[in-house]
Hints:
By secondary structure, the protein is an alpha/beta fold. It has a domain at 73-288: Aspartate Aminotransferase, domain 2 (3-Layer(aba) Sandwich). Helix content is 41%, strand content 14%. The chain has 14 helices and 11 strands. The strands form 3 sheets. Strands 2-8-7-6-5-3-4 form a 7-stranded mixed beta sheet, sandwiched between helices. α3 runs antiparallel to α10 (277-288). Residues 1-46 have low confidence and may be disordered.
Amino acid sequence: xxxPLKGIRMARSRRDFLRSLGAAVGAAVHxxxxxxxxxxxxxxxxxxxxxxxxxxxxxxYGPTAKVAAAISSATGLVNRYPFLKYDxxxxxxxxFHRVSPEQVLFACGSTEILRVAACAFLGSGRQLIQASPTFxxxxxxxxxxxxxxxxxxxxxxxxxDLGAMQAHAGASTGMIYICNPNNPTASVTPRxxxxxxxxxxPATVRVVIDEAxxxxxxxxxxxxxxxxxxxxxxRVIVTRTFSKVYGLAGLRLGxxxxxxxxIAAMRKFVTKSSLNAIVAEVVGAALSDTDGIREFVRRxxxxxxxxxxxxxxxxxxxxxxxxxxxxxxxxxxxxPVIEHFKMHKILIxxxxxxxxxxxxxxxxxxxxxxxxxxxWDMIPWSKKFMHH
Length: 388
């Protein structure tokens, strides 16, 4: 990366680190050190801005008590660079997934992984293919590098239209981005369809499969991870993050698993010295706390069902969710509804064209969701909606 764009990214990295440090200290002070089930439920006051945040798909319960304790212990190390932790962190992630360290690249969030993949495999005269709507960062990085972005509508069941993607793939296609489960729709694209799709692509295309919400998706014939069940295809790059189920969004750590030669090509573009000193110390605790993560997944499943129950009472039909957020058709323009919630001190997801009549809602605590539905019921046409 060259010129002004590099400067912007470096500035963002510094700001991200400072925000991460503040988040880590806050977590160390506020989160309890008891068992997961007894952990406090964060409230809007804890965010400091007076809003209930249902807008960023964060784990409202996290981190686990064990990870919170590790964060607390790690705060005494923030005056030191974590250079010696780089290899250890890579090896921990590799061991967790039973792959070699040469197959792992970590970065300042999985969004940076998308940036380095774009730098490695895109540029002027190259093409990125993705869905619309989907997580935007891959497309933004591609455009910043002068690449063409082809955004194709989702299919009937809100999965990626792989047939359309295949039809657009050609000699100039450098990368295809598949967010699975997809953000913002919370939907999955069937595993077998992706496997078949891979066999039909030009040999030069890299396929990034973003599994940020993997832990929330029920494993089945329809869905399974491309890390847990890899395919024999060196073009596949899988990304994961500690920002969702692990509850570490403020500490900024994500990673990719791919073939060694692909990782080597991407490594050239990763931001140097981007590892957060606190997250370097707590990754081991996060990966090993399987009971805590299992509890978060259970809670999320219950919260999701409660949301669907409340929506059903109001004759709303959300898209089937495989994540910690829900998207639903409100049959009215999303913009005014988003502003309505904001007036009631609740932030929900932004407008996602072309799904102009849909809103995305992150799952929060019981009190958060009670406030959400109270605000929904204040919308003048919400009662009439029940009779549509």
